[in-house]
Amino acid sequence: xxxxxxxxxxxxxxxxxxxxxxxxxxxxxxxxxxxxxxxxxxxxxxxxxxxxxxxxxxxxxxxxxxxxxxxxxxxxxxxxxxxxxxxxxxxxxxxxxxxxxxxxxxxxxxxxxxxxxxxxxxxxxxxxxxxxxxxxxxxxxxxxxxxxxxxxxxxxxxxxxxxxxxxxxxxxxxxxxxxxxxxxxxxxxxxxxxxxxxxxxxxxxxxxxxxxxxxxxxxxxxxxxxxxxxxxxxxxxxxxxxxxxxxxxxxxxxxxxxxxxxxxxxxxxxxxxxxxxxxxxxxxxxxxxxxxxxxxxxxxxxxxxxxxxxxxxxxxxxxxxxxxxxxxxxxxxxxxxxxxxxxxxxxxxxxxxxxxxxxx
Length: 360
What we know:
This protein is elongated. 41% of the residues lie in helices and 17% in strands.
């Protein structure tokens, strides 16, 4: 029996071949009824998409790169799982690359690894500068996640400043007043740590509490040993905090260990809250309160935006798409939640935060 072709699907579904193609490529401007009829026809005929041929006709490889600083950081491992799942829905293969926060490695990813090997890049940068981004304007389509190098770049993240503000307000609402920020960084930069620190300071200002620069404890990297070392050092120098705002869960888990080793009870004496909602925080003792980004939404939005950019680059964007909207740089903000567990006194609650979108 001959292998079914796209025209056979179109004939059975009673639609044009172009409509079948739009459904296969998951374009949004297709009615639910038409999409259902086409998919039923595909299933009935056993039609299989010729991915290699389709990518070749579109001038693509069908491969995108997910580029992160460290694969053994739980947040990036969990995010990668969601990106792979979302890419598979779009018949894309994901190449995962670790940079070690090294600028040369990040530059290589930004340029598509010096070849046409990948169609697009989802990049979490730590070492790149705004000039690096501007100097590689002709590179493969790139969507930034996490750090925002400059306004006007395609970017997907939570509202880090607002999230830190909410977490700090929660600590203040518990009556905590001496709050140390593990990983805090002052300044007006666009980085994640700077944004979260600004949120902390905004919450203090709202409560009429003066900001003490000494409350910001910088770290070399955002890992558990760094969190433990920062807290142990602060305690040995005479700090007596009643709360810790840790700028990721790895720092928070390290902080919990340091507090335990110093005989300090959590949350009775010191409340602790982190960021990222990694799995280990749900099993720590005590369990960790945290800001939980919607990692599935970050992946979905990033892959979807990258798909639009790749379509634009090859001239294969849906004719029904709003090209003006897609063409402008997108700064997309997804939802986060404040998840309260045993490491704060608000154990057991979840405070949702809405999502929003802005274009720059």
